[in-house]
Design goal:
Blueprint (H helix, E strand, L loop, with lengths): L13 H9 L6 E5 L7 H4 L5 E6 L2 H14 L3 E5 L2 H6 L7 E4 L7 H11 L3 E6 L2 H11 L4 E8 L9 E7 L1
Helix pairs in contact: 5-6
């Protein structure tokens, strides 16, 4: 992970975060929106035939490509916005994970998720308010199967929420 890339800093709970986010993930194709350096994409590559990770920033996408090559994983790295990627996506993936920034998914991403309707969707959120907003809109096509709170930053107001949705 290079200095200009984001990574979860709580090394004691990051594995629990990955396990919860990928629990029950199966199929042929997976998409990791806001893929960063490959925190979720690399473990997904051990479960799926084809994994595409989407990341807008240059430093993390280069780290992802390096990490995937080092791990021998066939992750397809796409640099660009999640919005544009989803707009151009015609084939519905079996599994989709989104780990958005604090601003959350937003209306356009939610609209595209409802259009594509991947049957298994997981959102990893660091902001309960934007997660609540996004989940309210996603109710039009999904039901919440499980919510898991992971306290990566003890004794602070910050919490990670892993939400599993099924359509």
């Amino acid at each position: 992970v290079s200095t200009r890339s984001f990574f979860q800093v709580n090394r004691f709970l990051v594995e629990s975060l990955i396990q919860r986010a990928l629990e029950g993930a199966e199929g042929e194709t997976a998409v990791d929106l806001y893929g960063g350096v490959g925190l979720f994409a690399l473990p997904l590559a051990r479960r799926f035939r084809r994994v595409t990770a989407v990341e807008a920033s240059g430093s993390p996408i280069r780290d992802l490509e390096f990490n995937a090559a080092r791990a021998g994983s066939a992750v397809i790295a796409r640099q660009g916005s999640a919005e544009l990627f989803l707009l151009g996506l015609a084939e519905r993936p079996d599994f989709m994970l989104a780990d958005p920034p604090r601003a959350g998914l937003g209306k356009q991403i939610v609209r595209e998720l409802l259009r594509l309707r991947p049957p298994h969707l997981v959102i990893v959120s660091c902001d309960p308010a934007t997660l609540a907003r996004d989940l309210a809109a996603l109710r039009a096509g999904y039901r919440i199967e499980r919510l898991t709170l992971i306290d990566l930053f003890p004794q602070t107001a910050h919490i990670e929420t892993v939400t599993e949705l099924r359509g």
